Amino acid sequence: MVDIDPWSSEVSTDYDRIIQQFGLESMPFAEIPNPSMHHRRGIIFAHRDLGNILQAQSRGESFGVMTGLMPSGQMHLGHKMVIDQVRWFQEQGADVTIAVADLEANATRGYSLAECRKVALEEYVANYVAMGLDPERTNIYFQSMRPIVQRMGFTLGKRTNLSEFEAIYGFKGDTNLAHVQAPLVQAGDILHPQLDEYGGLRPIVVPVGVDQDPHLRLCRGLAGKTNWFNVNDRKNGGLRITVSIMDENQSIVAGDKATTKAVFEQIVGALKGLGYSDIMADAKHGIVDLPAATKSDRYPIRMALLTLERSMGGPGLLQPSSTYHRFAIGMTGGKMSSSMPETTIFLNEDLKKMEKKFKRSFSGGQSTVEEHRRLGGNPDIDVAFQYLKFFFEEDDAALEEIRRGYVAGDILSGELKMMTVDKASTWLTELSELREQNAHLVDEFLADDAR
RNA sequence: GGGGGUAUAGUAUAGCCUGGUAGUACUACCGGCUCCAGACCGGUGGAGGGGGGUUCGAAUCCCUCUGCCCCCA
User: Which nucleotide is nearest to A413 (CA to C1')?
Assistant: First the structure.
C-alpha cells in the first residue's frame, strides 16, 4: 500500500506515480460516455481493463458492476463515493451485484451472522436505497448464504500460495488464517457473477480506491491462471492464441493428435464468428495467429475463447475490470477512517454534529483576515472545499467559482465552511428523507438467496 | 506433545521484583488565540482480558480460563 500524503498539493504527481507503480492505466476521459462528476474532476483517475466494459456497453452487450460491504460500523462519505460510482455504472446499463462480507466480518471481527444481517440491511442497504440504486437491477447477497463463493475461493486457492500472500498482503507466520481465507473468498465474490447461474459470462467492473488494488491484482491473477486459452501480442503484429495445458484440461485439450486437431478446429471456428479472414492455425506448434487483429479485438476474442472454454467444460473466467478513485481528505486533514469518527461524516450524522465537524475541520486559509485577503486560500488542502468537490457541489461552474473566490481571498475560510455546511445539510436531510420514504424497497434489493 | 513469555485509556507505554492515590505521550473533549481550522497556550475526560484464591487491602502474589507471541519436538 502506498501512503498518500494528504498535505501535498502536488496530488496529481503522486497519483501518476501510483499508476506507474501499480501498473494501472490512466482514465481515458475522452472515451467515457456521460462522464460523472467524479470523472470530470479527475477523482476517478485510473483503471484496469475498463475497455472491456466500454466495449460491451457500446455493443449493447451485458456487463456488471460489483462491490462489497463489510457489515460492521457505519456508512460514511467514503462509502458514498463508491456507491455513486456503482449507480453511475448502473445508469450506463450495468447490473449490480453487492456482496455482504458477513463471513469475513464473522471470522475476523467477531460479529454474529445475525448482527451482520441487521447492520447490512439497516445501515447499508437502507442508504443504497436512498442513494438511488435501482432495486430491479441490484442483487445483494450474503457470503454465508451463497456457498458457491466459498467453493470458488477454495478452488482458486490452488492457483496461489502463501508466498504470494506474503508479498501482496505482508502476511507472515503469525497471520491468522481467517485473514488468508478472506481474499480467496473475495475472489469468489468478484468472479462468481460471471457464472451461468448469476448472469453468465460478461465483463464485471469493480470500482475501488487504490488501497484495494492488491485484492484485484490477486483476483485477476487467479482468474487468468484458470484460462485454457491465452491471448498474447504477436511479434509481427496481430494477436496469437495459445493453449494452456494443465492438470484439469489435459485430457480434453491435449490427448492424442486427433484431439489436439479437433481443439484447434474449434478455436478457429470460434474466431471465424468474429469475421477474421486470415486465421493461421498451427496445431502442431500449438498456436493460432491473427495477424490482422488489433488491441481492441482482444476483448471479443477473449470472450469467444472463454465461451468455447465453457462449452468444453472449463471455468471460462474473465479477469475483472476495475477503476480507481482518489481518497477524499479526512476532516482533520489526515486520512478518512471509519475507526476515527472525527475524520469523516456518517450518512446518518446529526446535522449539528456535522456542522461542528466542519467548523473544526482543517482549512487552507491564512492566519488572519488581512493575510487571507492578500494571499488567498489553498483549496487543495482545505477540507471544506475538498468536500464540495468530492461530495456536495455537483455543478462544475459553481465549484469553479468558489475555487476562484477562495484562491483570490474573496471567500474566507469560515464562509467557505458555512457554504459547505449548507450543502451538506441539504444533502443529509434529503438522504434521510429518502431512507424513510423508500425503506419498503430494502427487500427488493436482496437476491433470492438472501431473503 | 513439551516449555517460556505477555495481556494496563482510542493508540503507544510506565508501574509489578519489594501489595497501599494507576503515571506519561499522542488522540478525544472544552477554553484562549485565529475569519475558521491547524500550530501554539491553558484546562477536562478516559484504563489493568475473564473467573477464582491469599490479604485489612491486589494492576502487582498464587491458581485457572481465554487471546496473542516465542522456543523445543
Answer: B36
State how far the Cα of A366 lies from the Cα of A413, in Å rounded to an integer: 8
- Find out whether A81 and A38 touch, Cβ atoms under 8 Å: yes
Rounded to an integer, what distance in angstroms lies between the CA atom of residue A21 and that of residue A27? 16
Radius of gyration of chain A measured on its C-alpha atoms: 24
Q: Which protein residues have their Cβ less than 7 angstroms from some atom of strand B?
A: A 173-176, 332-333, 339-340, 342, 356, 359-363, 365-370, 372, 377, 412-415, 417
Q: Model confidence over A437-447: pLDDT tens digits? A: 999 999 999 99
For B68, which residue's CA is nearest its C1'? A174
Kindly report the backbone phi and psi dihedral angles of residue A115, in degrees, each rounded to the nearest multiple of 5, phi listed first: -60, -40
Judge whether residue A277 has pLDDT over 80.
Answer: no
Minimum CA–C1' distance nucleotide for A369: B35
User: Straight-line distance from CA A438 to C1' B48, in Å?
Assistant: 48
- CA A114 → C1' B65, Å? 27
ipTM confidence = 0.80
Residue pointed to by grid coordinates 482482444? A298
